[in-house]
Amino acid sequence: MAFVDDVAAQIAADVTRIGVSTTADETGQVGDPVQPTYGTPSGGAVDLAAPLQISGPANAGPVTHLVFHGADGVIAVRPVGTPASFNSDGLIEVTSAAITVSIGA
Prior knowledge:
Elements: H1 2-14, E1 17-21, E2 29-34, E3 45-46, E4 52-55, E5 63-70, E6 73-84, E7 91-94, E8 99-100
Antiparallel strand pairs: 1-2, 1-5, 3-8, 4-7, 5-6
């Protein structure tokens, strides 16, 4: 599993910011993307070391996608598990932004 763990770690290192979107692409991005910290990969998977707090407009949403940014722009846009909205204080918490690498048969 060392190879897929190394690849997962490299992809996580390439993610410089994570934002949230109300559409299936970055055009619906709401709030300010934040820099994530990822944990240690295991079995080809790596996830956030701690939840992210993203600021945006109060009660905006629902957020349906995460936007993964790299140094050169958007890397990927992926659906969230359960859509949610910013709270009345203008915050939303992202508890998972997992990256999984596998080798096909």
